[in-house]
Amino acid sequence: MPLQEPFCSPFLAVSGDVLIVADRPAYAYEPRHRSRPRRPGHFSPYRRLFATPGARAFTAGNLLARLPMGMFSVSAVMMIAGSRGSYALAGAVTATGLAVTALVAPWTARLVDRHGQARVAVPATAVAVLGSLALLLCVRYGAPDWTLFAAYAATATTPNTGGMSRARWAHLHRGDPAAQHTANSFEQAADELCFMLGPVAAAFLCTALFPEAGTLTGAILLMTGVLIFAAQRATEPPVAPRTTTTRSPLRLPGVPALLAVFLATGGVFGSMEVVTLAFADGLGQGAAAGPVLALQAAGSCVAGLLYGSARPAAHPHRRLLVCVAAMTLLMSAPLLAASTGSLAAVAGALLLAGAATAPTMVTGMTLLQRVVPRAQLNEGMTLAVTAILGGIAAGAATGGWLAEHTHPASGYAAPVAAAAAALLLCLRTRPQGTAKAPPS
Predict the structure, then answer these.
(1) DSSP-assigned beta bridge partners for residue 19
(2) What total of structural domains would you count in the chain?
(3) What is the radius of gyration, based on Cα positions, of the chain?
(4) Percentage of the chain modeled with pLDDT above 90
(5) 341-352 pLDDT, tens digit each
(6) What CA–CA distances, in Å, run from 431 to 179, 228, 258, 370?
(7) In terms of domains, do 235 and 349 share one?
């Protein structure tokens, strides 16, 4: 006989002939704390970035290959100076290698654009590794000095691994400026981290093990990393067709002006390093110069990561103006701190000044990617790196001259002047239209 009156219980409700199983009590109380939707954190753009299939694998290989970039020059100087007793010879060898790299690197990048990353990067890296091993053997067995120059010059075929990684991000996230902004920020932070850890690792290996340990370890890491990177064929950008009307990136509108900004920015890096070394040595604290310079790289690394998590402005040229203006302003902090004669004050100022360099580099690379066609992206970014290296060399010479012929604290005027020159060049630069990439 059906029940005429409804029957209720905390978990059952009977009405008529129907038995209803409730998923919660009818009188259940509401929880005191309701679950709130999780807000995206500062680094959620990076989580989305590395959710891309294959991104973690090629990034791991690229970081492994990029770390030796901060090791080779320090390792070569310590190895040659320790064996031959001449810092002048060691400096001349590394300077020659830098000059040859500035000439060879754009050609290597052009081959990468024409034939693909894997087909060119692996043999080019093999030649560079053989050059490093030849340098090691020449130093170890007392070969004539000219062989050191020849061996180190062979390392100039090292491909621009950072540029190849940026090209992969640009291919994977074409049409998504926000993702490309985050990727460029991550790559710049990775550059800063590698150039911060590389010299430390090189100095430790050369002193704790044997003088050739830094060069040997760097060569192994470079070859292993490039092999892992090149094996990730699914994320490799396809080779874009080239036509007879394809021009060198140097002849594209807007590129020479951007390269001039990169050249001046390199002057900031080069002068800051030499002047800080001279300032610390003048205070009798030369051993502390390395950690002090690492603070600038640390500030730049953190700023780059935070900059990548922010939404980019609509106009990258305006962004570049703001970033370079901020860099010019913040570069005056070490100059003011040096006037106090305190290395601790300079260290804090360098940490602050470094916060503007990564955003400047990220925005400059973003503009370059918009101006240069995809078929020439590696070559364009390698030209930017070459301009930075040229600026580093010029800045080091200028800062060294000021530090030697004036008071060491006055040398900090060199990075301020270089940043101001970058700002003036940026003001004269007009934003160009985005280069249309060929269909993939």
Answers:
(1) 14
(2) 2
(3) 27
(4) 5
(5) 888 888 888 888
(6) 21, 37, 10, 10
(7) no
